[in-house]
Amino acid sequence: MKKTVLHGIAMAALLLAGASVMAQEYPTKPIKIIVPFPPGGTTDVLARLVAERMTESMGKPVIVENRAGAGGSIGADIVAKAAPDGYTLLMHNITFPLASAALLQAKRSPYNIDTDFAGISIVANVPMYITAHPSVPATNLREFVTLLKKDPTLRYNYGSTGPGSFMHLVGEVIKSEEKVKMEHIPFKGAAPLKQELLSGRIQLGGDQLSSSLSEIRVGTLKAYATNSAKRSPALPDVPTVRELGLAKLEMEGWNGLFAPAKTPRAIIDKLAAETAQAVRNPDLQKKLVALAAEPIGSTPAEQDDILRKQFAQVQPIVQQLGITMD
Predict the structure, then answer these.
(1) pLDDT tens digit at each of 326 positions of the chain
(2) Neighbours of 175 (CB within 10 A)
(3) CA distances from 58 to 25, 70, 91, 270, 302 (A)
(4) Which candidate, 45, 44, 46, 31, places its Cα nearest to that of 72?
(5) How far is it, in rounded angstroms, from Cα 228 to Cα 293?
């Protein structure tokens, strides 16, 4: 028995030593960041900005690859099943816990959000905003709900970036909590959603603030509320959902990096340090502020924590309302 224990301790020491050497040498080849959405969206832009800085500091190319589809689950699954060596990473956002809960509800999740990913760092927080077409005679989300209650004949549509997305959850919660009617119109990304919202063919929509900030400022879209806990300095007059009596919709918008589970801790820590260094760069910070993004560069534990907390927050709501990815 004693020999077996000593053998086990020796093997563990060898594995730790091997992981340490691997981390010191890492990276020895290009790193790929999978973005599970189409090019041009906020998460894609943030991934490319960070990848550029990490390429300079790590001495190896950091490449962004878009693998869109199924609410981000196609790209997430690729990373979940990749080798845990630090060369295939995932850049995701607030959609991750929402879509994962909807996939679980539909009993067809290709990955386990609790066990298949290791957080690296929250790159930046970008607040989520609910927006409307200017023709809607309401100035905020509470007035919009009151409008629907007063006139049940209104045939208003709300759009989302797809089933299981942020606006899908928002729309269904509003319908359930406030007892109003709206039709859900899903789109394949933020760009087509915004286009239909700008045309007035749908009345309510929303996504990360950077995707609609310029339209809000010129008045071609109305900002109804932010889902963050506090108002954004970019739009200080727009209330939070909690201020409007819709605290159930409060969720922090984030964008962050993940690796496959079982990636050596030393590599995770190195990637987190590189991410934090990247977002501290003054030029990058200026670009993030222009996107209404708050630079973060968190620890791995903080990235894991927000994912787990938001998943626990939305899963019972998704179950109650029967929201799926279908």
Answers:
(1) 555 555 555 554 455 545 555 567 999 999 999 999 889 889 999 999 999 999 999 999 999 999 988 888 999 999 999 999 999 999 999 999 999 999 988 888 899 999 999 999 999 999 999 999 999 999 999 999 999 999 999 999 999 988 888 999 999 999 999 999 999 999 888 888 999 999 999 999 999 999 899 999 999 999 999 999 999 999 999 999 999 999 999 999 999 999 999 999 999 999 999 999 999 999 999 999 988 999 999 999 999 999 999 999 999 999 999 988 76
(2) 18
(3) 11, 32, 18, 10, 23
(4) 44
(5) 12
> How far from 83 is each of 88, 115, 259, 262, 266, CA to CA, in Å?
7, 15, 9, 9, 16
Distance CA 37, CA 61 (A): 21
Please provide the DSSP assignment of 204-217 as one string.
EEEEEGGGTHHHHH
What does the alpha-carbon distance between residue 137 and residue 118 come to, in Å, rounded to a whole number? 45
Please name the amino acid found at residue 304: D
d(CA 64, CA 51): 7
Compute the radius of gyration of the chain from its Cα atoms. Answer: 21
Q: What is the DSSP letter of 240?
A: B
> Residues with Cβ < 8 Å from 139, sequence gap 6 or more?
222, 224
Q: Which domains does the chain have, with CATH numbers?
A: 2-126+253-321 (3.40.190.150), 128-249 (3.40.190.10)
Judged by DSSP in three states, 191 sits in helix
Q: How far is CA 100 from the centre of its chain?
A: 11
Letter for the amino acid at 127?
A: P
Distance CA 272, CA 15 (A): 22
Using CA atoms, how far apart are residues 217 and 277, in angstroms rounded to an integer? Answer: 32
Enumerate the β-bridge partners of residue 186: 160
| 27 in Cβ contact with 83 (< 8 Å) | no
Distance CA 76, CA 96 (A): 8
Residue 276 burial by Cβ neighbours in a 10 Å radius (0-12, 13-18, 19+): middle
Helix (H) or strand (E) holding 5: helix 2-25
